[in-house]
Amino acid sequence: MTHNAPPAAKRIFVAGHRGMVGSAIVRQLAGAPDTDIVTATRSELDLTNQQAVAHFFATENIDEVYLCAARVGGIHANDTYPADFIYDNLMLEANVIHQAYTAGVQKLLFLGSSCIYPRLAEQPMSEEALLTGTLEPTNEPYALAKIAGIKLCESYNRQHGTDYRSVMPTNLYGPGDNFHPENSHVIPALLRRFHEATAANAPTITIWGTGTPLREFLHVDDMARASIHVMTLPKVEYDDVTEPRLSHINVGTGVDCSIAELASTIAAVTGFKGTIEFDASKPDGAPRKLMDNAKLKRMGWAPEYDLQAGLENAYAWYLNNIEQARS
C-alpha cells in the first residue's frame, strides 16, 4: 500500500488505482495540496474479501474514497463470464461501501456505467430512466451489479446521512485502457486491430456487427476531472425522497457517432488505407446509447477532449506503451 503526503493531509483511497479510471484520478489528484493518496494492489487487498476490507478501513484512517475498482470487459467478456461479472462487482461494492461507512468515511464516489439504463431507453438517457425498462441482455449481470452500487450509495445516504455519490460514465477510452483483442471495449480493440492491420498492410479489416449502432465516447482524463468535480459539490440532504440525488449523475460528452464512423476515424488516426467490412452475423448490442449530461453541465463541468483529439491521444499512449497495452 502506498501513500504520498504528510500525516496531516486528507487521506483519499483510490480503489482500482491501476485501472484506466483509477489511474487517471490518481494523476489528477497527485498535484493537489495536502492530499495523501492511498492505494492497494489486488495482492495487497482483495476487495471481494469482507474481512480484508474491514481491516483495511479500520486501520487506514481514510477520509474519502473513489471506488473505481471493478471487473470490466466488452460484449465478448460479459457474455462469456456472466457469473464472474455479477459476483465480483457485487462483492467489492458491498464491502467497500459498507466498511467505509463503518469506519466513519463520509465522502465516497462510486463509478457506475451507462449500461445501467434500459436497452431501449429514450435518447439521450437521463438519470430518471434508471429501472424503467429491460436491460441489454449481453451485459445484464454487470449492469445489475452497477445498479446495486448506486442503490447502496443512495440507501446509506438516506439511512445514515453519508455523502456517497455515483457517476455514470459513457463509454471510456484513453491511457491505461485494456487493448486485449477479445476482452476489451470497442475503441481500444479497434485501435489495436487497425494498428496491426496498418503494420501488416492488410487490404481489409472486419468489425463485429452492422456498424449502425450509435455510441458516445469520453476520454478518461475528462472522466477523472468530472469525478473530482462531483466530489467537490455541496452535499444534498436526503430527507425528501423526491430530492434529486447527487449519488447518480451522468458523465458524457452529449455527442455520439455510429460504429462505422468511429472505425473511419480510427482508420485515419492509425493510417489504415484498406477497406472496412462489417460482420452482420455478430451482435450489435444496444442500437443507441447517448447520455443526457445536462445535470452535470448545470453543475459547472464540461469535457475538454473531442473524439478526434482524444483518439489521437489514446493512440499515442498505445504506441508509447505497446508492450504493456498488449499484455
TrEMBL record:
NADP(+) binds at residues 16-22, 111-114, 146, 169-172, 185. It is an enzyme of class 1 (oxidoreductase). The record marks S113, C115 as: Important for catalytic activity. InterPro entries: Epimerase_deHydtase (IPR001509), GDP_fucose/colitose_synth (IPR028614), NAD(P)-bd_dom_sf (IPR036291). GO terms for biological process: 'de novo' GDP-L-fucose biosynthetic process. Residues 12-235 form the NAD-dependent epimerase/dehydratase domain. The active site is at Y142. The keyword Chaperone does not apply. The keyword Lipid biosynthesis does not apply. Pathway: Nucleotide-sugar biosynthesis; GDP-L-fucose biosynthesis via de novo pathway; GDP-L-fucose from GDP-alpha-D-mannose: step 2/2. Substrate binds at R193, W208, R215, D284. Keywords: Isomerase, Multifunctional enzyme, NADP, Oxidoreductase. It holds the Pfam family Epimerase. Its EC number is 1.1.1.271. It comes from the Bacteria. GO terms for molecular function: GDP-L-fucose synthase activity; isomerase activity; NADP+ binding. It catalyses: GDP-beta-L-fucose + NADP(+) = GDP-4-dehydro-alpha-D-rhamnose + NADPH + H(+). Belongs to the NAD(P)-dependent epimerase/dehydratase family. Fucose synthase subfamily. HAMAP family: GDP_fucose_synth (MF_00956). Catalyzes the two-step NADP-dependent conversion of GDP-4-dehydro-6-deoxy-D-mannose to GDP-fucose, involving an epimerase and a reductase reaction. This is GDP-L-fucose synthase. The lineage of its organism: Bacteria, Pseudomonadati, Pseudomonadota, Gammaproteobacteria, Cellvibrionales.
